[in-house]
Amino acid sequence: MTPEQYVQNKAAASGSSFYYAFLFLPPERRAAITAFYAFCREVDDVVDEVSDPGVAATKLAWWRSEVARAYAAVPSEAATHPVMRALMPLAATYRIEQQHLQAVIEGCQMDLQQTRYLDYPGLERYCHLVAGVVGEVAAQIFGQSNAQTTAYAHKLGQAFQLTNIIRDVGEDAARGRIYLPMSELQQFDVKAHELLKSHPPASQASDSAADFNQRFTALMRFQAQRAHSLYDQALALLPATDRRAQKPGLMMASIYRTLLREIERDGFQVLHQRVSLTPLRKLWLAWKVQALGRL
Prior knowledge:
This protein has 14 helices and no strands. By secondary structure, the chain is mainly alpha-helical. It folds into two domains: 1-113, no CATH class; 121-128 and 142-295, Farnesyl Diphosphate Synthase (Orthogonal Bundle).
């Protein structure tokens, strides 16, 4: 299997909404974003799929070294992983720098060291590393020509990450992680242990369950409003001169914001199920942006 086939398979197998936006790109840009996305998935999978924190830390350290080797431009120290072998020939063309990749690794390292965030500014730092930086790189690959587009891409990446956090509250809690800021749980009188167990015990009266659902829904509505605000801010920052080039990002915005609205319509049932859009619906949303130029 060639490195190009490897990253293509990695991106397609993820089922991510990002993949549908890639389909509309010219071949070389599609190859670059696919390789970069595959890198992000590889590093993220270390945290999500390796149960032993020590082993996961060792794997992330290996990735740091692998990235450093790839950018050292020393033949004897060339990258060995197929993701890096697919990415490096395109890195200079699309200004994908070592610091970008190391930032993504640093963000995943935070998942090994931190399972709670005291406040939103703390969570913002995490979102910057695992999503904001990713958005900036993606914008460059898509064909950014205006410096202001960087601010748009960073803000949009944060909106995507908050949408993921809202969608994955139950799955993250099952791993012992709570990304919702502790100060905001306190604000809405939601206890961490209530999220970790996902629902009140069956022995509790139904009115207790109703009380929890009311508090939890208020908390999640607050999170959704913040995410919507970030989408609005991001779209307002996108320069008209780059709107055409940034269509893939707008496709992703359409898909992710539609997902967020589905979660809202479903009453934030995210502790017990994973809300998702069908592949056909994602493709339709992406095509609509491509053909009509609107979300």
